Amino acid sequence: MGPNGAGKTSLIAIAATLIHPTKGQARVLDELLGRVDVFELRHRIGLSSAALTDRIPPDECALDVVMTASWAVTGRWQEVYDLWDESRALGMLSLFGVSQNKDQKFGSMSEGERKRIQIARALMPDPELLILDEPAAGLDLGAREDLLTRLSGLALDPAAPTSLLVTHHVEEIPSGTTHALLLRDGGVVAAGPINEVLTSANISQAFGLTIDLSHENGRWFARAI
Question: Which of 51, 98, 168, 172 might form a disulfide with 136, Cβ 3.0–4.6 angstroms?
């Protein structure tokens, strides 16, 4: 996490194998970028982001939005799906509480529903790495808390993939998160176990403002002082 311009978007793009670093090296799932077929590697990564939302056809139903992740496409065309694909897609929709929307067009859904369907889509191919780029951005309080409850359950599930979440707000960090990275101006302020990284001093340095940070019942809260 970090303020605007800290480098979060670039880092996520590298982790998702969408770009390569201009300097140094980057390893994703123990594969060195530049020496691996990124198209093969991307099948091991699930991504949910605002940029992906813009690529999903608004008239695509929720079930197809999720199911087409099996072919790494964003609109159903001539792919062939079987009962296993449909069953898994329905299971992912149910996991995030949107199975009742399976026949609804993506463009007619609320922001909260679209966010949850995107995450269900990201999980469809059973990835080793799940990347969530500001999953709670733009959500009202109720939708945010519902989503964070589901993400917390995912974080505590030993069978779930490793998750990488980007946010501007400590309040949007799901309980169960184990590590954190704080960025500012393209550099690292702190990295490591979350209880060591998320301190009032580190957050204040990252955001350039004196901030009091508190931790209660697995959730983080911040206020300027």
Answer: 172
pLDDT value, residue 194 = 97
Q: What is the CA angle 220-171-137, rounded to 5? A: 160
Q: At what angle do helices 111-123 and 141-155 cross, to 10 degrees?
A: 20
**Domain residue spans in the chain?**
8-224
Burial of 176 (0-12, 13-18, 19+ CB in 10 A): middle
Task: Give the global pTM.
Answer: 0.91
Matching residue, tokens 């889509």: 121
119: CB partners within 8 A, 6+ apart: 48, 96, 130, 132, 135, 151
Whether 9 and 190 have beta carbons less than 8 Å apart is answered as no
pLDDT (tens digit per residue) in 145-198: 999 999 999 988 999 999 999 999 999 999 999 999 999 999 999 999 999 999
Q: By C-alpha distance, which of 130, 116, 192 is closest to 159?
A: 130
Superfamily for domain range 8-224? P-loop containing nucleotide triphosphate hydrolases (3.40.50.300)
The pLDDT tens digits for 72-112 are 888 888 888 999 999 999 999 999 999 999 999 999 999 99
d(CA 178, CA 155): 9
